[in-house]
Amino acid sequence: MMKRKATIVILAIFLCSVFAVNALAQTTDDQEILYLLGSRASEVAMKELPFDKDNPNILVMTSASYAIIDGHNTGRCIDGVADASGCTVGKGNLLLIHRSREKPLWFAFFSKNTKECVYLEVNNAVLGKSVDEFKALADGEVFTKIAKENIGVDKLLNEPEAWDEKMRAKVFGGGAKPFNNEFTMMTIANAWAKGAPPELIRANQFHNHICPGSASGYLFVKYIDKNLPLEKPSQRYQIIAIKPWCKDDIMQWILEATIGNKNYIAKDLTPEQMKQLPKDAKDVANVVIRWDSATGTGKGMVIAWDWNKAFQMCGDVSRKDLKAHDTHRWWWMRLKMNQWMLDYMDSPETLIHTVKEFDVNSPAELNKLKSAGVNPLVELGIMPEPGTTAAPAPTEKTPSIPGLAVIAAIAIAGVVAYAARRRKT
User: Fold this and answer.
1) Closest by CA position to 101, among listed 122, 72, 137
2) In whole angstroms, what is the distance from residue 75 CA to residue 92 CA?
3) Which of 33, 247, 329, 335 could covalently link to 321 via disulfide, CB atoms 3.0 to 4.6 Å apart?
4) Residue 301 phi, psi (nearest 5)
């Protein structure tokens, strides 16, 4: 009886070991296949563009590490891309584009010289195959889509209708509208090709595209650096985004001021509240406070953007183009403004101004500005209390009395006559 039990236990241990080894082998194969996916994508692009390894004029963009396939994180693909192409995160020419985890795994290779871009979208079915089976697959079996297009800024701005048709046809896989893969590729690649600041490029990986709104975020950071810099280790920024827009993704990324760290708050304004803003605060953007935890006090400023000036200086764009999604104008104006704004990265004061400077004298004052239900612009005297108007209260006028002028004239004449008689006597 004891021998039978021992035999059963040994057999169970053996079977568990076999299953564990098989599972480990499959996991190892999947990780190796992910690495090979990055390598294969690079090899295809190197033939299509073409380019040699370590070419500094090649940019790689990918959703690897964000995309999840059958529970597998796809970060291992990044190593395959780097080893095969020579493009790396450290060199600034391998970008990890933030996408929702259920979205496809893809790679895009852009040449600064030719402005051509090769897009490859992965067939998820390749995971689960052995390494030998994967290596035997043709490129068309590994990737569900391989596309090559010229996305140079001059071509797109001069021939917008042709590119708009390709965007609608999802030539690079499409994605959530309107800021789909096609928009991602053309905005980031052309900004990189023009020499956009690395910090701007890195932050926009999280935003997953570059637009005038996100570019303004970088300019706000530069403006804050100039006008309210951190001066002590005990200081950090407390920021209230009001109104929030794309800029806030960039500012959180660069300034280490985030919602999770409780030093970045977003508050929106209703259309009615927007109408109550004074002229110099119509495009109000942020309340920025340099908070010193050692003293429990802070210095702050309310800053605003000038969209009308930006549209005018850029030329041939307008506010209405922002929502013109039924034509090419929505992406055309963003691409055009992106390129124009890159010329102002070191002069943020061209488009940003300070509405008001103020002091924060206690933690209680800071918490009140940040609290739900409190409008910091009202607290700081920039816009009126709810239920009131921005216009000053009218001054009271003295009521008109009929005949008042006549009575005054008679009185004055009497005084003059009396004075004359006194002189004679």
Assistant:
1) 72
2) 17
3) 329
4) -150, 145
The model's pTM is 0.85
In whole angstroms, what is the distance from residue 341 CA to residue 226 CA? 18
CA 56 to chain CA mean position, Å: 26
C-alpha distances in angstroms, 193 versus 58, 92, 153, 187, 225? 9, 12, 10, 10, 26
- Residue 376, C-beta contacts closer than 8 angstroms, at least 6 positions apart: 240, 242, 267, 287, 369, 370
Measure CA 357 to chain center.
Answer: 26
Contact of 116 with 110, CB cutoff 8 Å: yes
Question: What's the token pair of residue 66?
Answer: 């964000």
Beta strand 94-96 with 72-73: parallel, antiparallel or unpaired? Answer: unpaired
Q: Give the phi and the psi of residue 239 in degrees, each rounded to 5.
A: -125, 135
Say if residues 85 and 64 touch (Cβ distance below 8 Å).
no
Q: What is the pLDDT along the chain (425 residues), one digit of tens a residue?
A: 566 665 665 555 544 444 443 434 445 799 999 999 999 999 999 999 999 999 999 999 999 999 999 999 999 999 999 999 999 999 999 999 999 999 999 999 999 999 999 999 999 999 999 999 999 999 999 999 999 999 999 999 999 999 999 999 999 999 988 999 999 999 999 999 999 999 999 999 999 999 999 999 999 999 999 999 999 999 999 999 999 999 999 999 999 999 999 999 999 999 999 999 999 999 999 999 999 999 999 999 999 999 999 999 999 999 999 999 999 999 999 999 999 999 999 999 999 999 999 999 999 999 999 999 999 999 999 999 988 875 333 333 333 333 434 344 444 445 444 444 544 44
The residues with which 297 forms a beta bridge, in sequence order, are: 292
Type and span of the H or E element at 419: helix 404-424
Alpha-helical (H) ranges within 343-403 are 363-370, 376-379
Which residue intervals of 178-323 are DSSP H helices? Answer: 181-194, 198-207, 212-227, 247-255, 271-275, 307-314
Domains of the chain: 210-384 (3.30.1330.130)
Cα–Cα distances in angstroms (integers) from residue 29 to residues 128, 133, 145, 226, 373, in the given order: 8, 11, 24, 52, 54
